[in-house]
Fold:
Amino acid sequence: MAAARHIAGIALLLACGHGGSSAPPAPRDAPATVPQDAAPLELPARPIGLASLADYGWRKRAGRRPYREARAAEDRGDWAAVAAACERALAADPGHLDARWLDAIALAHLGRLGDVLAPLDAAAAGDYGKWTPAALEHPALRAFLATPTGDAWRRRAERDRADYVAALARSLVVASMGDLYAYDPQTTRWHRLTRTAGAVVAAFVAPPGAHRIAYVTRDRAGKLAVGLVELDTGHTTHAVDVGITATATAPLAIAYGNKPTGFWIGSGGGAQAWRVLDDTGALHALPKLPRPSGAWLEVHAHTARLHRLAANVAADWDDQELASALRVGASNRVVSVPNAGMIDGSTIVWSPDRGHLAFVAQDEQCAAGKAATALFVADAATGTTRELGQRGDGGYALEWLADGRLAIAADRGVSIVDLSGSRSLAFDGAALLAPRHRPRCAPEPAENPEPEAEPEPEPEN
Structure:
């Protein structure tokens, strides 16, 4: 009965938080409050991630100013003022996860261990990859983790790790608000992968099986940095300066090599002295070598271009990776598009079952610097093509989410389309990691946003 009453109290804390500053502190949670022969406490399951992509936009919502006041009080070591400012931030915006985390730290410093669970649980559940590892290592939370409630939270966090990694493995990764996020189609929840205060301008996905993403950030001075996302673990490294500015004549180049294995970072596409990004996020010099075979990403001041040609297709590609037709190797079928369209080889993506390939095509002739682009899906066995949606000159990027489900990035955001014809989901303001294809004759717009004018620094672990 004592354990049951204790769990009921925990559920109330999770629902209500620690209350306003006028409420008396909750009783401290200490091991002596539970009989020695009581069964270990178990916290109820809680979904990880957030329900929508927009939920991660707390940096621009109403709690921003009081949260900054909390950070200033933290710098002074005034933990009572930190807790009070966090309460104001959360009253204005209950979804401000940074304020939830800082509130938990402040309460732990104040010795109010019975109040720590609610804000800590909300922060760690909403951004598991950031706050769960931080909580397990933070010195201020050691006393809380030594309590029965803290020990129960630790056990549940360890159980949740498998769910988190499984979610990332099946997720669609998109860029939004200058960071990377993973959408889990099974739970329909979102997970944050990078935390750069909106500085991500490009990303490059390793070949299938590597389960890694290299992301590129740019600061307001134009300096570029590269970091690593390990999808197998959910671990993200801080971006490291690569010594290249966005205004340099030679663009940043990223490829994936095998000897040594990892992302190769350079300042151009030819033979050069590359550097390799290791699993810890550190760069190591390599001798002068040619670029590894396979896809590579080129990042300029405001745009990025992905160079890749799909396997098991052949065509007479021109120097812009365009062709009027292609041949599917397995079936020997020829695929072409109507109205003398030109297939962009860098956009071809195979479905997981290799039954279909999707691609972007453009008009053969450009008029006034514009050419309409269109999306097609081809049946690999028959060579028949099907056009998806309307034509336009805004540009597209494609990625398969599953057999029969295709993610399409256009001007407004990302849509997930079922090949049966239904448009099931739309994520406004999001982009796929592959840059959108635009007609080669049209000038590339300034697509990569500048970082926030006054970015809030990410709280350290």
User: Anything to note?
Assistant: Residues 172-307 form one domain. Helices lie at 2-16, 64-76, 79-92, 97-109, 117-126, 128-137, 142-145, 148-169. Residues 1-17, 19-35 have pLDDT under 50 and may be disordered.
